[in-house]
Amino acid sequence: MRVAVIGGGIAGLVAARDLAIAGASVTVLERAPFLGGQAGSFELAPGETIERYYHFICQGDTGYLRMLDELGITERLHWRTTDMGLFHDGDLYTFGDPLSLLQFPHLGMRDKIRFAITTASAKLRPATRWQDIEDMTAVEWLLSRYGERTYRLLYEPLLISKFQDHASRISAAWMWARLNRLGNSRSRLMKERIGYLDGGSQAYVDALEKSLRDSGVDIRLSTPVDRVVVEKERARGVLLGGVLDPYDAVLSTVPVPHTRELFAGLRGPYFDNLRSLQYLGVMVLILRLNRPFSRYYWTNVSDARLPMSGVIESTNLNPLPALGGDSILYVPQYLSHTDPRYSRPDDEVFEQYCTALGLMNSGFDRSWIKSSWLHRERFTQPVCETGFSRRVPSIRTPIPNLLLTDSYQLHPNDRAISFSTDLGREAARLILERR
Question: pLDDT, tens digit, for every residue of 330-340?
Fold first, then answer.
């Protein structure tokens, strides 16, 4: 059986690996000149690479951990207890463990007790119970559980920064899943313990690539697909540069907005639904500093003057000794690719973020910055509004040998390498099941 996998991100690579191990002849078609998608890396300097977007591993990421073992790279995995910060109205606080919660001056004791109980219950809620709150908005759920003051201070800025105009309609199930995943990576003392790989997520991508090449998978980089060719209710293959490349099955693993182009001309409720799904993009400034910016891995932002929801100092999780003590800072902002702010010149974005960092740390000086990069991704964050599971497209399309994976199918979970790994494995299983 010949299978085309469109997209060389995590789901595509994992699916290709499982298919090849099962005896299929697999071709991976990736439009970019590198593998990994949003889990890929870029070169800081000759011989030094770093993730394009920040990633971390939680203790409940069983799909990821299992694949690390299968690939023989578990020894690259390290766990570390990290601190979380909160920048609120001009001051930076430690936030995220019982002691810092007790010391936080902007919540009353009743708010703090509700916060502790609700956070613990989100961790303990059975994974199958998210459907109970799917038709409730995250705003309604957070207000009912945490109370007005905690919601306004901690969660409203997160929702607005993450989802912009869609914030008031996001499902409570998405919010719960986010709290649940992080909660299950906390120690008994409620300290956050998360993991990283030596070499970052690129180590995972490299190990998958090696496994694919060892299994005879044909990997074609810089190879955009024009569209999927469907005739007589069967996918016949893909069109590459106007020429048909025939396959017995086709799996698209690229974001739905790209998939819609690949499926141009296909009609019916399934494909009409694809055209209605919404995505937000992301813009991330990465700074290499000659010293630490803070002691926190993740600093949430609750200050209307700042454009971002958080600042991630990745070297407070993964120290990257090769950088000689330098720090790496990721500053993200989620926006629709049609938002004028998404297309601002790089120097304007740099100036705005440097001003924001100066508000967060009065000692920050631009002389600290050794290098900077700005990455944009048009389709990153699915917009998961209430009742969304009823609109999530199935992996199997109505065309029997045409399948797709997409971040929407992770619902209610947020995007993470582990969940994409699971998604790729399930797609491969379904293809093999129909063989």
Answer: 999 999 999 99
- Cα angle 95-298-406, degrees, rounded to a multiple of 5: 125
22 and 146 assigned to the same domain: no
Secondary structure class of 296 (helix, strand, coil): coil
Q: Please state, as a whole number, how many other Cβ atoms lie within 10 Å of the Cβ of residue 413.
A: 20
Residue type present at position 140: E
Which two tokens mark 249? 């099955």
Query: Which residues have C-beta within 8 Å of that of residue 178, sequence separation ≥ 6?
Result: 414
Tokens linked to 216: 């005879």
d(CA 259, CA 252): 7
Q: Cα(401)–Cα(248) distance, rounded to whole angstroms? A: 7
What does pTM read for this prediction? Answer: 0.94
CB atoms inside a 10 Å sphere around CB 241: 9
Q: What is the pLDDT of residue 188?
A: 59
pLDDT tens digits, 147-181:
999 999 999 998 998 899 999 999 999 999 988 88
Q: Write out the E strands in 106-226.
A: 192-197, 218-220
Which has the closest alpha carbon to 315: 299, 304, 326? 326
Query: CA-CA distance, 333 to 42, in Å (whole number)?
Result: 20
The domain total for the chain is 2
Average pLDDT, the chain: 93
| Structure-block tokens of residue 187 | 């120690």
DSSP-assigned beta bridge partners for residue 82? 192
Write the secondary structure of 316-358 as one string of H (helix), E (strand) and C (coil): HCCCCHHHCCCEEEEEEEEECCCCHHHHCCHHHHHHHHHHHHH
Both tokens of 215, joined, read 């299994």
Q: Which amino acid is at 252?
A: S
* pLDDT greater than 90 at residue 205: yes
Residue 284 belongs to some domain of the structure: no
The pLDDT assigned to 116 comes to 86
Distance from C-alpha of 217 to C-alpha of 21, rounded to nearest angstrom:
10
| Distances in whole angstroms, Cα of residue 127 to Cα of each of 86, 114, 121, 268 | 28, 22, 12, 33
Same domain, 105 and 182: yes
**Which stretches within 24-108 are classed as H helix?**
62-71, 98-103
Q: Which of 233, 211, 244, 248 is nearest to 5 (CA)?
A: 248
Please indicate whether residue 207 or residue 189 has the higher confidence score (pLDDT). Answer: 207
Residue that the structure tokens 């694809």 belong to: 274
272 and 406 part of one domain: yes
